[in-house]
Predict the structure.
Amino acid sequence: MGFETPLAIGLVLLVLSGISLAGALIERRPPRVAALVVVMAGGLILWAVLAAGRPLVWEDIPLAFVAAIAGWLN
C-alpha cells in the first residue's frame, strides 16, 4: 500500500467531518465527533505525505483516488 489509500481515505474523512461540524453547529451541540474525525483525517493525510517520500502536488489528489479505487477493485 502506497500513499494513495491513506490520502484518499483522509480526504474523504475530512469532507465528512465538515458535514458533521455543520450539523453540530446547526443543532447547537458540541462538535465532538467532527473534531475526532478531523484528527483521524489529519493523521491519515500526514501518513500519506510522509509515505510519499516526495512533496505532494495538487495533481496527486485525483491520481490517488484512482489508484486507491483500482487497488481495491483489483
Remarks:
- The chain has a mean pLDDT of 93.
